[in-house]
Write a structure and sequence with these properties.
Pfam families: Ureidogly_lyase (PF04115). One of its GO terms (molecular function) is ureidoglycolate hydrolase activity. Its cofactor is Ni(2+). It catalyses: (S)-ureidoglycolate = urea + glyoxylate. Belongs to the ureidoglycolate lyase family. The chain is an all-beta fold and 167 residues long. It has one domain: Ureidoglycolate hydrolase (Jelly Rolls), CATH 2.60.120. The chain is 2% helix and 44% strand. The chain contains one helix and 17 strands. The radius of gyration is 16 Å and the shape is globular. The protein starts with a strand and ends with a strand. The mean pLDDT is 97.
C-alpha cells in the first residue's frame, strides 16, 4: 500500500479539486461604512438543478485512528460541498480527480492550517471529513434536493492507501 504524502493546503495545489476558503491573498473590499472588510466570492456553491437549494449545516466529527487505511472515497455529483472549521483546528483532506471512478495512484492528501476551509467542486472524489482533533466542528455548505447526491467507491485491497499524519 502506498503511504500518502500530506501536502500543505494551497489554492494552487487544490485548484483541480475545488476552492480554498481563506482570507490570505483573496480579493476584498470595505463595507459597512468602512468598518468591515469583505473577502468576496471565496467559493461558489454549485447545484445541478434549478430547484436545488444551498443549505448550511454543522458537522461534528470524531477523529479516526491513525494511521488510517483509505478504503473508500465519495463524491457528490449534484452539488459542491464546503467545510469551514469552526474551532480553528487543522484538518486533513484526501481527494482524487474527477472521473467515473477515483484512480488510486492519483489520490492526494492535504492538511489545512486551521484557518482554511475548502469547497469540493461538484463530482470531486474525496474522503469523508477527517479531523485531527478528538472532536471538531465544521460549518458545511452543500446542496439539498431530490436525487442521489452521494456515490461511494471502495478500492480493491491492492489499491488502498495509508494516511499517516504523524510520520
Amino acid at each position: 500500500m502506498r503511504t500518502l504524502t500530506i501536502e500543505p493546503l494551497t489554492k494552487e495545489a487544490f485548484a483541480p479539486f475545488g476552492d480554498v476558503i481563506e482570507t490570505d491573498g483573496s480579493d476584498h473590499f470595505m463595507i459597512n461604512n468602512g468598518s468591515t472588510m469583505r473577502f468576496h466570492k471565496l467559493a461558489t456553491v454549485e447545484t445541478a438543478k434549478p430547484e436545488d437549494n444551498a443549505i448550511i449545516s454543522i458537522f461534528r466529527a470524531d477523529a479516526q485512528d491513525m494511521p488510517l487505511t483509505v478504503c473508500m472515497l465519495e463524491r457528490h455529483p449534484l452539488g459542491s460541498q464546503a467545510f469551514i472549521p469552526l474551532l480553528g483546528n487543522p484538518f486533513l483532506i484526501v481527494v482524487a480527480p474527477l472521473g467515473d471512478e477515483p484512480v488510486s495512484g492519483l489520490v492526494r492528501a492535504f492538511v489545512t492550517n486551521g484557518r482554511q476551509g475548502i469547497n469540493y467542486h461538484r463530482g470531486v472524489w474525496h474522503h469523508p471529513v477527517l479531523t485531527i482533533e478528538k472532536r471538531d466542528d465544521f460549518l458545511v455548505v452543500d446542496r439539498s434536493g431530490t436525487g442521489n447526491n452521494c456515490d461511494e467507491h471502495f478500492f480493491k485491497e491492492d489499491e488502498r492507501l495509508i494516511l499517516a499524519p504523524h510520520q
